[in-house]
Design goal:
The chain is α/β, with parallel strands linked by helices and 508 residues long. It is 46% helix and 14% strand. A hairpin with a 4-residue loop joins β1 and β2. α10 packs antiparallel against α14. The structure holds zinc ion.
């Protein structure tokens, strides 16, 4: 009765677990169900390409787990109160919640443009204070937390040496960390590595009631408290960028395990950095690109393809040349889709996925050892969500599709090929744009050409109108007029291409 050819026995999926340092068979806590928590943004500013990488990577993991037939609860939080937000609010003379609110909205817009699915739950710190206070109280009760006098009440710290296995995720001993840490030692702390669970209120800052007086949560406790509320005290996957491994995730383990007395996460998954000229892209280094800035020059499909072309655990080198490569590749793939759609006289948006509408069997047969598509895709995803391998599965699919159109093959077979692409696109989150619309979007250097054309008063609608006029002129054998239109457009950076189904244009 199931129509999901991609579903597989759970033990066939292997994931790389940072905790064990190796690939392990994925066996969820509750059969058939997956609980996944990924650390979200601190919304004090616009999100950058580093954020796009994390959330696109875990978006594919979410999509793949669903394709495997799991019922997935995916939680991604917002750290909507934090030192950086308070600082930014003070600089701008507005309330911290206004800073957080506008950047959360911008982030959600960015994610929607990148075709990132909305998680099941998006909890915020400011609406989780009750859970956080309860958890801090329990940690104190268990003897791993202690209260000292703070500015406007009590500060609560986590006592790191209370956890004998602290450092198990980062693979560092407490002695090594202490030697490496250049922290100003707060004399109120029992140990230099102890960290804040609760910070007492400072004048003018947002604060909430607690048994220790008014204050706000430390950074790490929120993820322990929110994951516990939504996924329980033992769940499957915890993810985030590699930079969160230490201290954030290490501290989260310490807090949760001090609270429950047992492990709280089975599999820790971390994605690699985005590097710029071999340095990590980060806000603090100033070498970052916001998602919106990149999307002014490149289509979201291109950025997504660029990100998925590297395995999520590996570093990505962000360069214009690499983005141009992704653009050229996507142009070619979209060109194939448009050609096949025109030939088979179907709209891309109306092509159903092969899995739902039954078959891609005829097309799969054409693929030979490169098919069947769904099985090859499953194999690649089951290997720690290997997206470069999935893209390698896509390659012969597009080549075969192109060949079928060239050979003027049976149109039904071409539609099957398009359905096969839908299967791949569903899990990669690619090819969500109509190919014609994608191809009409200027990218890279063509963006400047489009701006130039627009500044000369040429909107895409006007270009379309001129194109229609040229077609009419050609029909009437008025080649003088048709050539004049071509030259006029060429002078404004627009190239016309005549094809079997009419003329198309693009910015050059
Ligand atoms: Zn977190």
């Amino acid at each position: 009765m199931t129509t999901q050819p991609a579903s597989l026995p759970a033990d066939q999926l292997v994931v790389f677990n940072t905790l064990s340092g190796k690939k392990e068979p994925f066996v969820p806590v509750t059969p058939g169900h997956v609980g996944m928590y990924v650390c979200g943004i601190t919304p004090y500013d616009l999100s950058h390409v580093g954020h796009a990488r994390v959330y696109v990577a875990f978006d594919v993991i979410y999509r793949a787990l669903k394709a495997f037939g799991f019922d997935v609860r995916y939680v991604r939080n917002y750290t909507d109160i934090d030192d950086k937000i308070i600082k930014r609010a003070a600089e701008r003379g507005i309330a911290p919640e206004a800073v957080a609110g506008e950047n959360i909205q911008a982030f959600q817009e960015d994610m929607a443009r990148l075709n990132v699915l909305t998680p099941t739950d998006e909890p915020r710190v400011t609406t989780s204070i009750g859970d956080i206070v309860a958890m801090v109280a329990r940690i104190v009760e268990k003897g791993s937390g202690y209260v000292v006098e703070g500015t406007g009440g009590g500060d609560v710290y986590f006592h790191v040496p209370s956890m004998a296995d602290y450092g198990k995720l980062a693979k560092r001993s407490l002695d090594d960390m202490e030697a490496g840490a250049r922290v100003e030692v707060d004399p109120r702390k029992k140990h230099p590595m102890d960290f804040a669970l609760w910070k007492s209120a400072k004048p003018g800052e947002p604060s909430w009631d607690s048994p220790w007086g008014r204050g706000r949560p430390g950074w790490h406790i929120e993820c322990s408290a929110m994951s516990d509320r939504l996924l329980g005290d033992h769940f499957d996957i915890h993810g985030g960028g590699k930079d969160l491994q230490f201290p954030h995730h290490e501290n989260e383990i310490a807090q949760s395990e001090a609270c429950y007395g047992h492990p709280h996460v089975k599999y820790w998954l971390h994605n690699g950095f985005v590097n710029v000229d071999n340095e990590k892209m980060s806000k603090s280094l100033g070498n970052f690109f916001t998602i919106r800035d990149v999307l002014k020059v490149y289509h979201p499909e291109t950025l997504r393809l660029f990100l998925l072309g590297t395995h999520y655990r590996m570093p990505i080198n962000y360069t214009e040349a690499n983005l141009e490569d992704a653009r050229r590749r996507m142009d070619s793939l979209m060109g194939t889709l448009q050609r096949a759609c025109e030939y088979a006289a179907v709209k891309w948006g109306e092509v159903a996925k092969g899995v739902e509408s039954g078959k891609t069997a005829g097309f799969d047969a054409r693929l030979g050892e490169n098919g069947p598509v769904a099985a090859k895709m499953t194999e690649a995803l089951a290997d720690d969500f290997n997206t470069p391998r999935v893209l390698a599965v896509a390659s012969p699919v597009f080549t075969t599709l192109n060949g079928l159109v060239t050979d003027k093959a049976d149109k039904a077979l071409v539609v099957e090929g398009l359905r096969a692409v839908k299967v791949l696109g569903e899990v990669l989150g690619l090819w969500f744009t109509d190919p014609a619309a994608y191809l009409a979007t200027p990218q890279g250097d063509a963006v400047a050409a489009a701006e130039k054309a627009a500044s000369q008063g040429l909107t895409p609608e006007q270009i379309e109108a001129l194109l229609a006029e040229r077609t009419a002129a050609r029909k009437a054998k008025d080649f003088k007029r048709s050539d004049a239109i071509r030259d006029e457009l060429a002078a404004k950076g627009i190239e016309i291409k005549d094809g079997p189904t009419g003329a198309t244009w693009r910015y050059v």
